[in-house]
Write a structure and sequence with these properties.
31 strands; single chain; eleven-stranded mixed β-sheet
Length: 1004
């Protein structure tokens, strides 16, 4: 079979490897592993006698001449970012470290693929090794199994739950299968994941395994003819190969159907073209022995599954345990399978990662797969370690294979690079996969530089700062063309957490500097988002420039409005809204009411439609004068054609009214009211000391002089008429007739009325007529919104006038107020201003639909990983002499000095008999771990769940003879609140802080 007859990379049987993550001996990441493999490093650790004694190794073992003090060690297996995954400290220390490291690797793998926080049909196929933590730690430590709920212990330590717990904690909704086939576990998991993807059971799959078996700092007693090496070196295919070495590690890959991965702009590291699994059955000398027939059949089946011939394979990542019998059988089986395709010799390199890391058991197969993926991706075959003289008894000259002792460049000649990967389990379950170089994707066409919005989030503040620092460092090597893809990946490919940072820019160095100076903000779980729509005076020529070209929905709506208004206005508003340069005639035209009001409505409504398209949905709307028409239309109280007609008529009639003037006065209404001359009245109440007056030009000018004499600041507005004054009286009747012809609907969103400051119940012709004439009660409407939970105001329209008003309502801490469009200040870039507003909204807690935000543009690229805030969650086999808090964090791990979920501890109660408070606190600490429990502590925020809530109820009943219902605990998760559920007659005085909190809980 020739390459030309094969299907291309879009073949329905190809699966893409789009994400990689792992922790290995000597390497805390896949990148570190790849560097180590290319350098030909052995990453095993040889222990000193002192280390063996500290690990509890008996003297009769380490003094034995056959004792080999070597193992592949995993850094910091005792540490875990429990808070990120919602674990309590107690649950974390009762959980198998294999489950914990899989969780962290799963998080990193999904992020590396650009699918962090994936909410879809994601499958999980994983397996774990023997759980020695349960046997040697939990069952021997007094705080272990004896003090734990049996179900909790089972969920955290049974192999059955490794996959489902991963799916639960990461929110993956596809099949979740625990795979257990000994040494071949993780490659079998990859095969099953591939099948699941091709069958349509899931759209994304995590596959791999973990083998983390404490105690780590121990070796083994060598047994002749066993599977372990006599000298602590694993030598696959070498003359002196006599066994392997135990290693610890975990690895996961993210898989996706190749056609989908290419279409979605994913980073494809390699393709899995085919795979197969089988079992030896009884065709071997014993249960643990390998079988030539079984291995030959699975390799042949994988080649057939891939639709490729053996002579296109340039490298085989072998099982390679480094035993005399195993190596010979493996090469014989490979040769027999390849001889069905070719008689060539010496064309295919062979190696095994076990020489570098030791045997990773349940993680071995996927680790070898990752090595093969990186080899076909980068075109490098790493050197075989510990094989200076290949075993001559294998007869290499008659096989297709050779061993290389140096890193070799691997060019793609006559077709894509391909590799085979084998994993053979004790018990006979064999797996083989064919890995292929991904098809290079064409680079996107050069795009003009444009600002991008980078968003970062983390569970804790320190993690947010570290994330920003890592990304800033990454941007130091980026070019401008990389920035849109980086922004896209951060927006759609990261889970959203509470501590958030957002920066805007086009150049990498600009973004780098802004990231380093940015301070993360803790977002609210929900905000009350209010859209504010400005009134006349905010308009200017060219105000839609910069948004029209960038925003499809904005452009679409603005075009529709301008086309509908052309008949009313006698011109196309776009000639003014999209004007590229300053023009006195355009300025004068837009200053007039005839065009100003329709222009403002058009830009505001188009921008609001764009924001809605991005999933930015307000809970309340408030407009200023003409701005309320935009609010009413957005709330579906007016249909768009009717709103445009009414706004155009309003502008035309008001333009025909007598000329007037308006003055913004920085003083309280009661202070200036005695100074108002005849014909001048208050037109808008914008704040406690911010009013607008309106009237005839001469009278307003006279008032301005009077105010100046009294030391009152006042500023004339850029308007042609005196709105909301008696000057509007001549047009009221005609306007009422037009408004009566419009169909009004009940608002579907809350709109704050300019007449009353209260939510509008219903619009009518009479309402709009009064609205034209009476003062704008803007401050009153703001006051109603400000008392809603976590208000955030977004000015949707040109300028920052309403943003300034919303900030100056007299509060000590004003709400967050943001502008979406620049004012008249030079140098403001409209699109960048809008992105900055969206970023600030998101950091405050507003939702953004990032998929719609980017219109599907951009590729998902590999970015720096999440900086886990690991803490020690570990039960020692014997009580540790070193308190957990005194243990230093691992090198490269971000320090995490305290658990941010826990408020500062309350002062301890005075010595005396145990009271309700201390007894309840002891129950919480028994369930959640030894962490401070303050009055304001929340049971579920500290890692509690419904299962622990049931145990809490049982322990309270036993301790206090009080029966609580589950609903009571769910409704009162706070420590003080639960204290309030206990009989008060028996409760002694509480410590300061708890007493007040309990009273508050009782009142609530």
């Amino acid at each position: 079979m020739s390459d030309e007859t094969l299907s291309g990379p879009d073949d329905d049987t190809a699966v893409a490897v789009i994400g990689l993550a792992g922790r290995f001996p000597g390497s805390d990441s896949v990148d570190q592993l790849w560097s180590s493999l290319q350098a030909g490093e052995e990453s095993l650790t040889r222990f000193s006698t002192e280390q063996l004694i500290a690990a509890g190794v008996p003297a009769h073992d380490y003094e034995n001449p056959d004792y080999v003090p070597v193992r592949g060690v995993l850094n910091d297996m005792e540490l875990f970012d429990a808070a990120l995954f919602g674990y309590s400290a107690r649950e974390a220390e009762l959980t198998d470290p294999q489950q914990r490291v899989l969780l962290e690797c799963g998080w990193q793998a999904l992020e590396a693929a650009g699918y962090g926080g994936f909410d879809g049909r994601g499958g999980v196929f994983v397996g774990t090794g023997m759980n020695t933590y349960l046997l040697r730690h939990l069952l021997t430590n007094p705080r272990g199994a004896q003090d734990a709920d049996l179900l909790q212990l089972m969920l955290g330590n049974e192999k059955d739950h490794a996959a489902t717990r991963l799916a639960y904690r990461l929110g993956l909704r596809g099949p979740a299968l625990a795979v257990q086939t000994a040494c071949s576990t993780s490659l079998v998991a990859v095969h099953l994941a591939r099948q699941s993807l091709l069958h349509g059971d899931c759209d994304l799959a995590l596959a791999g395994g973990a083998s983390v078996q404490p105690p780590q700092h121990t070796g083994y007693v060598y047994a002749r003819n066993g599977i372990l090496s006599p000298d602590g070196h694993c030598r696959p295919f070498d003359r002196n190969a006599h066994g392997t070495v135990v290693g610890q590690g975990a690895a996961l890959v993210v898989l996706k159907r190749a056609r989908d991965a290419y279409a979605d702009g994913d980073t494809v590291h390699a393709l899995i073209r085919g795979s197969a699994i089988n079992n030896d059955g009884g065709r071997k000398v014993g249960y643990t022995a390998p079988s030539t027939e079984g291995q030959t059949e699975v390799i042949d089946a994988a080649l057939r599954s891939a639709g490729v011939t053996a002579d296109t394979i340039g490298y085989v990542e072998a099982h390679g345990t480094g035993t005399e019998v195993g190596d010979g059988i493996e090469i014989a089986a490979l040769t027999e399978a390849y001889r069905k395709h070719t008689d060539k010799t010496g064309f295919c390199a062979v190696g095994s990662i076990k020489a570098n890391l030791g045997h990773l058991d349940a993680a071995a197969g996927v680790s070898g797969l990752i090595k093969a993926v990186l080899a076909v991706r980068d075109g490098v075959i790493p050197p075989a370690v510990n094989c200076p003289e290949p075993n001559p008894e294998i007869g290499w000259d008659t096989t297709p294979f050779y061993v290389t002792n140096r890193a070799r460049t691997w060019p793609a000649e006559g077709g894509p690079r391909r590799a085979g990967v084998s994993a053979f389990g004790i018990g006979g379950t064999n797996a083989h996969a064919i890995v292929e170089q991904a098809t290079p994707q064409p680079a996107p066409p050069p795009a003009r530089p444009r600002p991008s919005l980078l968003v970062l989030s983390a569970h804790e503040r320190q993690a947010a700062l570290s994330s920003a620092d890592r990304l800033a460092h990454h941007l130091g090597t980026a070019v401008a063309a990389d920035v849109p893809d980086i922004a896209h990946t951060l927006q759609v490919g990261r889970a959203t957490r509470a501590w958030r940072t957002a920066v805007v820019g086009a150049a990498p160095h600009t973004l780098r500097d802004r990231l380093r100076s940015a301070q993360p903000r803790q977002a609210h779980r929900a905000v009350t988002l209010g859209f504010m729509f400005p009134g006349q005076g905010a308009q200017r020529p060219g105000m839609a420039t910069g948004l029209y070209d960038e925003l499809p929905r904005f452009r679409e709506v603005l075009d529709e409005c301008c086309e509908r208004l052309t008949g009313h206005l006698g011109l196309d508003l776009r000639t003014l809204l999209l004007k590229q340069s300053a023009d006195a005639d355009a300025e004068m035209a837009l200053r007039g009411t005839l065009l100003a009001q329709p222009a403002l409505f058009t830009v505001e409504y188009a921008l609001a439609a764009q924001l809605l398209d991005w999933g930015i949905k307000p809970r309340v709307l408030i407009g200023h004068s003409i701005g309320e028409y935009t609010a009413a239309c957005l709330a579906h109280a007016l249909d768009l054609p009717d709103a445009l007609d009414l706004v155009a008529v309003r502008g035309r009639l008001m333009a025909a009214a007598p000329p007037g003037a308006m003055l913004a006065v920085h003083a309280a209404e009661e202070k200036i009211e005695p100074l108002l001359p005849e014909g001048v009245s208050v037109a808008a109440r914008n704040g406690p000391e911010a009013v607008v007056v309106s009237g005839p030009p001469d009278a307003v000018a006279s008032l301005a002089a009077t105010l100046d004499e009294h030391g009152v600041s006042a500023r004339p507005l850029r308007v042609s008429h005196g709105f909301h004054s008696m000057l509007m009286d001549p047009v009221l009747d005609e306007f009422r007739e037009h408004a009566a012809a419009v169909r009004h609907h009940r608002p579907r969103l809350r709109v704050m009325s300019n007449l009353t400051g209260e939510p509008v119940r219903e619009y009518s012709a009479e309402y709009w007529t009064r609205h034209l004439r009476e003062p704008v009660a803007f401050s009153a409407g703001l006051a109603r919104v400000r008392v809603m939970p976590h208000p955030v105001f977004l000015e949707v329209g040109p300028g920052r006038a309403l943003t300034g008003l919303a900030r100056s309502q007299g509060e000590e801490t004003p709400p967050l107020c943001l502008a979406t469009m620049p004012g008249t200040e030079p140098g403001d870039e409209p699109y960048e201003a809008l992105l900055s507003a969206v970023g600030a909204l998101w950091t405050a807690g507003a939702d953004v639909n990032w998929t719609e935000f980017g219109y599907g543009r951009g590729r998902r690229v590999v970015l720096p990983p999440y900086p886990f805030q690991r803490r020690r969650h570990w039960l020692d086999a014997e009580p540790s002499a070193t308190p957990p808090s005194d243990r230093p964090a691992a090198p490269g791990t971000t320090p995490a000095p305290e658990d941010p979920r826990t408020p500062a501890p309350e002062p301890a109660t005075a010595p005396g008999p145990a009271d309700h408070e201390s007894r309840l606190r002891a129950i919480w600490q028994r369930l959640l771990g030894d962490q401070p429990v303050a009055a304001a502590a929340d049971f579920f925020a500290l890692g509690g769940d419904s299962l622990l809530a049931v145990r809490l109820i049982a322990l309270i009943r036993r301790e206090f003879d009080v029966t609580l219902h589950l609903d009571a605990v769910l409704d009162h998760p706070g420590f003080a609140a639960q204290l309030g559920l206990l009989p008060p007659s028996a409760a002694p005085a509480l410590t300061p802080g708890v007493d007040e909190a309990r009273k508050d809980a009782d009142t609530a």
